[in-house]
Amino acid sequence: MDTSTLLRPASAIAVGRRGFLRTGAATTLSATAIALLAGCESVAGTGGDPGNDVAILNVALGLEHEAINAYQIGAESGLLQPAVLNVAVLFQSHHKEHRDALTATIRKMGGKPVAEKGKADYVTALNASSLRGQGDVLKLAARLERGAANAYLGVIPSFRDKALAQVAARLAADETMHWTALAGALSEPLPGKALGFGA
């Protein structure tokens, strides 16, 4: 079965996730927002545009909602073997932690976190009705994880403070770990060249 049509093309996912982080607005994400996201209120300053930061963080939050729901759809599909289901639930828990950190940060900045869409919206957006087997579910998850890794990596160069950039790097590391495990489960080869992420 050709699984290339199960979702939006991988390039569209990568562009969407990287795009929001590489826009002019994203490069002005303040140290305050990142410090709050990292749980470092003591280093949070007052610079930057809080409204702009909230908007950017809400895009990231929306992507975490999507990942959580993708794993839920996969878990409820009945297509996953028990061992794979356990890993999917673990990865979903990581995305829930990301969601919770983003939500808390947005609220601390006086913003309103973007609401999670209804399950039916994610089923449609992810073309979940086309999932026919475990491989399809894993390919869906792998595409989303690679896109998320690239998105978080894309924002790192905009930080002058290494400690603040570390937050984005930690998020990217989670997504890369997820992608690597999923690629292994799919028996896909590792990238043949170095520097394959974040480009």
Quick synopsis:
The chain has seven helices and no strands. It has helices spanning 10-22, 31-37, 50-76, 82-108, 119-125, 134-155, 162-185.
Question: Main traits of this protein?
Answer:
Ferritin, disordered N terminus, mainly alpha
How many individual β-strands? 0
**H and E string:** HHHHHHH
What is the arithmetic mean of pLDDT?
78
Helical content stands at 55-70%
Structural class: mainly alpha
Please report the distance between the alpha carbons of the first and last residues.
30 Å
> What name goes with the CATH superfamily?
Ferritin, core subunit, four-helix bundle
CATH fold type: Ferritin
Oligomer description: single chain
Q: What is the CATH domain class?
A: Mainly Alpha
Query: How many helices does DSSP assign?
Result: 7
Given as residue ranges, the uncertain stretches (5+ residues, pLDDT < 50) are 1-28, 42-46
Describe the fold and architecture.
The protein is mainly α and 199 residues long. It has one domain (16-185): Ferritin (Up-down Bundle). It has 7 helices and no strands.
